[in-house]
Structure of Ldh family oxidoreductase:
Amino acid sequence: MTHMDFDALVALLARIFIANGASAGVADILARNCAGAERDGAMSHGLFRMPGYVSTLHSGWVDGRAEPVVEDAGASFLRVDAANGFTQPALAAVAPIAIEKARATGACVVAIRRSHHFAALWPDVEPFAEAGLVAIAMVDSMAVVVPPGARRPVYGTNPLAFAAPREGGRIMVFDQAVSLLAHGDVQIAAREGHVLPEGAGVDAAGQPTRDAQAVLDGGALLPFGGHKGAAIAMMIEIMAAALTGGNYSHEVDWSAHPGAQTPCTGQCLILIDPARGGSGAGFAARVEQLVDALRAAGQERMPGDRRFAARAKAVRDGVPVSAEMLARLEALLTS
Ligand code: NDP
Ligand code: PYC
């Protein structure tokens, strides 16, 4: 295991993206995102994803050089056509305008369509909370989650991320899939031979299974919390696809592009200026009071705590990367 300087890791990943057809701008954004996930210990969306990005670029399914088009849709509404590119460059293009609108009007909805999201969602919300706004993001993905009572998957693993300012420049953030496990974690479990937790998935015959490979071989994932998680999955399909003009998870069809792995769907982002609410400038203090109440009640770990601790350690010691992973990454420079 070596410990890589974060910027050196970003530079290596950017070279891989460029070597496989991405523009320099897209490469830098995706490299920072992917290295950031690894740095924060979000392994299901860190370096593990690089071969998937590369095979998708080679398949012609995604445009690694796409130029997003931002459309003004009202005082508090922005649309973005990601032009069959990745979501993060589209978000980067619209973010400054969205912040401006949220500050000017109290809120802003951003509807991104024709966009590929293959990453963790927290990087899409954290910067807005750091800028003093509340941010909620939703993305639909590919149909691998079976609704209660249904015979086949319809929903994606559809992540939902939330971030809000806390006192002292800190933020409160959570980021979670609607399935009990993210698809990436099932792939990792299959590769490493781990058994899935109870209630994570079903096999091709629709029977409950803890076998990760059975879920991948024609089985499906289950939403967390049964019908309650399924309702959140439905909301995310409506907000990230119907509202944005993107694909539903069940409409993603990459069959003509062998090697494609990045779902082309949509993302909805909602920004709120918390100073407009009833707590006014006291919003961050009110968030802190909730955290205090949770801690007093015995909850020691807040969402984001593990990620922030991993980040602080990596900033100090470097990002741990195994020799095997480094060799795999270097091979992607010439794939
Ligand atoms: P996890 O279940 O690992 O974590 C979900 C959230 O709960 C995190 O905010 C986490 O904080 C927090 N958390 C975890 N354990 C505790 C605990 N004991 N007490 C308090 N808080 C806790 O995430 P998922 O497996 O659902 O998702 C993993 C990643 O996969 C996400 O980043 C998601 O965006 C991504 N994903 C992306 C998809 C896409 O289409 N692009 C699709 C599906 C998932 P912390 O981070 O600090 O652990
Ligand atoms: O881990 O479920 C997942 C996922 C889907 C798309 C990107 N990540």
The first strand starts at residue 2 and ends at 4. The chain is about 40% helix and 20% strand. Residues 42, 44-45, 117-122, 139, 141, 157, 159, 174-177, 181-182, 185, 301, 303-307 surround NDP (ligand 1) (CB under 6 Å). The mean pLDDT is 97.
